[in-house]
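Quick one, tokens below. Sequence please?
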């Protein structure tokens, strides 16, 4: 795969990952009512996310309510919120920086070395964005798992399990990490050749001096 094609594939993967992370952050299905257990009689399905909680009735009507207070939220929700916001900001700047540094764009094409460095910087931003998304989703999933399996008087079919937004978040993190890694492979070829030439020429120079 050529350098330009690799950059384009990495950019498209990272862009898809950022859009998926945005969808995961907005969706309220970070955890949902569990349907495990023997006697399952549920007329209302509960969903909770980072910003709101929803109740879906069997008639198809859905009612959502935003979380009232920020300070009254649990620590893992506040932490996941912060990580997702940081992830989206890093990904947004990565989108802008990568467009400038990609070979298929006309911006700064008179200096290909600097242009490649900018592409690498965009890839690093995408990698950091993917790591933040991965940390946020994994932290929330760990808390859901702990609350599901801990000993409690709450019946199993009244507890919460993984929601669809968590799987969207894991997919978003994977795409961002993959796209960012491909963009990080755009290190300036001129510098690589210069470093290789320097390593090859240094021993011969030492022999001539002796």
């Amino acid at each position: 795969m050529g350098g330009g094609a690799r950059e384009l594939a990495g950019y498209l993967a990272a862009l898809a990952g950022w859009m998926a992370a945005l969808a995961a952050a907005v969706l309220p299905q970070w955890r949902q009512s569990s349907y495990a257990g023997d006697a399952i009689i549920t007329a209302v399905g509960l969903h909770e996310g980072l910003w709101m909680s929803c109740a879906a009735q069997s008639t198809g009507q859905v009612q959502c309510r935003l979380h009232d207070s920020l300070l009254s939220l649990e620590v893992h929700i506040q932490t996941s919120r912060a990580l997702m916001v940081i992830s989206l900001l890093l990904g947004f700047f990565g989108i802008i920086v990568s467009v400038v540094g990609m070979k298929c764009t006309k911006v700064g094409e008179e200096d290909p070395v600097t242009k490649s460095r900018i592409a690498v910087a965009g890839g690093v931003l995408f990698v950091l964005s993917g790591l933040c998304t991965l940390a946020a989703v994994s932290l929330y999933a760990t808390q859901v798992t702990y609350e599901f399996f801990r000993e409690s008087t709450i019946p199993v079919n009244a507890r919460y399990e993984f929601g669809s937004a968590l799987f969207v978040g894991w997919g978003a993190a994977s795409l961002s990490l993959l796209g960012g890694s491909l963009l990080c492979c755009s290190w300036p070829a001129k510098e690589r050749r210069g470093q290789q030439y320097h390593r090859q020429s240094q021993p011969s120079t030492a022999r001539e001096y002796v």
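Helices lie at 3-26, 75-101, 112-149, 164-184, 189-209. The beta strands are 31-33, 44-48, 52-57, 62-66, 160-162.
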